[in-house]
Amino acid sequence: MTDDIDRAQAREEHDRDLALAALRERIDAALTPRDPSLDGLCIDCDEPIEPARIAALRGCVSRCIECATAAERRARGYA
Ligand SMILES: [Zn+2]
What we know:
Elements: H1 2-31, H2 51-56, H3 65-75
The structure holds zinc ion.
């Protein structure tokens, strides 16, 4: 009986750890763009990224609004 409870608790902890790890991964991915632009130029078209956009995204921006929109469409399979 206590064994069952222990097992259930262990499984619950394990599930929670997995959920936390997945959440942390998502947060890390959101905070760390894979290809950040270091010079404020769009990585796709090499045009300067709008300063307001850089400020709004706290510097974590690698594409201008047009290319970011296009990239998002591609990512969602609309291209
Ligand atoms: Zn661009």
